[in-house]
């Protein structure tokens, strides 16, 4: 099965390159640093590194408190962070700059993986969330590199998708020393996929341990003072294609009752920033953008946040947050950022990427689910009109956030034990 998988990976390589070319048409960073995706880069010249793989922005954000804990507890160990997407790369650079060594994870081809591991010489490999690459995992075991999946999650959809490769993935997972799962449900799914029961522990979700950036609350208050402190403000964060129109239609409903309301709109992917701005303008809204105006004024109805990694001050400045990827079957995004700031949350029906967190927030009264796009406008308007309900929801969301903290400390204890071996 592994030989067939490797053959399929080699045959798919031209298609992967074509995909990079196509994505680069919309986002030029996809055209950069191609050799790294095949394991070609200048060796950093160290050995015994601690390697953290975080595929994109969400995983980098989840790994942030863990990486900071590794830097604190192992200050002399070189830190290597790999990503797959340019947006993940940009987030690594924004958070850590030159204090870590960043390189793209190579494609799961034996020679590419071998070159990569030979150059970074890791003492420990930490894979964030759901990245199972058989050739990489087998190569780590062959070289005696302890491998651990941290903040591990596995949706029902992913479990079904892995079914044809279950035999291969079972063998790959047996190369892993420990799987630190976000929840009991995730742990059970990893066992169904083939992990041994003794490999899997429930440590909680590290995203609950994410730090609130210094000055985020103060910056949010400053922005509110600029655009009008009494204005009703809601944010639609991490939206995908098919969601912006629904959000804008919802905002039209809000404006009929609250004509001074402001919508902060943050598309998930940078390559869609211009398209979303054009869509907003074509529908007749008065628009400002982060890149041009910096902050909206009293005259603007919609503000497009065309920048990465800057959502926390805008969450702090909002009365209500809709978290995208949930009206379309993407699976939802991180609901904890607004929850950490006591901001009530709305989500759509598709939240399987953050299933237990979302369910917990809804159960405790910190979030509400809308059944479809048509319900978003009425739900947003109802909450924007009811300050007391928003306060209750915000306090409930913040309680859930505080209650679930501590995953990073639990994961660090496991890492310490592996490194001491």
TrEMBL record:
Keywords: Cell membrane, Lipopolysaccharide biosynthesis, Membrane, Signal-anchor, Transferase, Transmembrane. It is found in: Cell inner membrane; Cell membrane. Transmembrane segments: none annotated. Pfam families: Glycos_transf_N. Its EC number is 2.4.99.12. It catalyses: lipid IVA (E. coli) + CMP-3-deoxy-beta-D-manno-octulosonate = alpha-Kdo-(2->6)-lipid IVA (E. coli) + CMP + H(+). The keyword Membrane applies. One of its GO terms (molecular function) is Kdo transferase activity. It is a single-pass membrane protein. The active site is at residue 59. GO terms for cellular component: plasma membrane. PANTHER family: 3-DEOXY-D-MANNO-OCTULOSONIC ACID TRANSFERASE, MITOCHONDRIAL-RELATED (PTHR42755:SF1), 3-DEOXY-MANNO-OCTULOSONATE CYTIDYLYLTRANSFERASE (PTHR42755). Involved in lipopolysaccharide (LPS) biosynthesis. Catalyzes the transfer of 3-deoxy-D-manno-octulosonate (Kdo) residue(s) from CMP-Kdo to lipid IV(A), the tetraacyldisaccharide-1,4'-bisphosphate precursor of lipid A. This is 3-deoxy-D-manno-octulosonic acid transferase. It comes from Rhodanobacter thiooxydans. The lineage of its organism: Bacteria, Pseudomonadati, Pseudomonadota, Gammaproteobacteria, Lysobacterales.
């Amino acid at each position: 099965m592994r030989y067939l998988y490797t053959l399929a990976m080699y045959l798919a390589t031209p298609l992967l390159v074509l995909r990079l070319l196509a994505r680069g048409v919309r986002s030029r960073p996809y055209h950069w640093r191609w050799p790294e995706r095949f394991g070609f880069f200048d060796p950093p010249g160290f050995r015994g590194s601690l390697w953290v793989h975080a595929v994109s922005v969400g995983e980098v954000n989840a790994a942030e408190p863990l990486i900071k804990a590794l830097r604190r507890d192992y200050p002399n160990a070189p830190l290597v962070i790999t990503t797959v997407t340019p947006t993940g790369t940009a987030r690594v650079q924004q958070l850590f700059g030159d204090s870590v060594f960043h390189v793209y994870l190579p494609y799961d081809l034996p020679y590419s993986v071998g070159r990569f591991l030979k150059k970074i010489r890791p003492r420990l490999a930490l894979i964030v969330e759901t990245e199972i690459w058989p050739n990489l995992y087998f190569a780590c075991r062959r070289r005696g590199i302890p491998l651990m999946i941290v903040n591990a999650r596995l949706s029902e959809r992913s479990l079904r998708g892995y079914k044809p490769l279950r035999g291969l993935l079972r063998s790959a997972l047996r190369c892993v020393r420990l799987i630190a799962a976000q929840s009991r449900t995730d742990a059970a799914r990893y066992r169904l996929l083939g992990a041994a029961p003794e490999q899997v522990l429930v440590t909680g979700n590290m995203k609950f341990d994410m730090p609130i950036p210094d000055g985020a609350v103060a910056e949010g208050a400053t922005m509110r003072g600029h655009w009008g402190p009494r204005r009703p403000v809601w944010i639609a964060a991490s939206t995908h294609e098919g969601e912006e129109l629904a959000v804008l239609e919802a905002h039209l409903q809000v404006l009929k009752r609250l004509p001074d309301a402001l919508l902060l709109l943050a598309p998930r992917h940078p390559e869609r920033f211009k398209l979303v701005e054009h869509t907003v303008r074509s529908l007749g809204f008065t628009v400002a953008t982060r890149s041009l105006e910096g902050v909206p004024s009293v005259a603007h109805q919609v503000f497009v946040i065309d920048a990465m990694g800057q959502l926390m001050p805008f969450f702090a400045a909002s009365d209500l947050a809709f978290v995208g990827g949930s009206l379309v079957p993407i699976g939802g995004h991180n609901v904890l950022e607004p929850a950490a700031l006591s901001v009530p949350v709305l989500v759509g029906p598709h939240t399987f990427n953050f299933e237990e967190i979302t369910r917990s927030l809804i159960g405790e009264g910190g979030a509400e689910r809308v059944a479809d796009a048509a319900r978003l406008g009425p739900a947003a308007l109802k909450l924007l009109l009811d300050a007391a309900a928003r306060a209750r929801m915000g306090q409930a969301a913040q309680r859930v956030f505080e209650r679930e903290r501590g995953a990073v400390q639990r994961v660090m204890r496991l890492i310490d034990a592996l490194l001491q071996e």
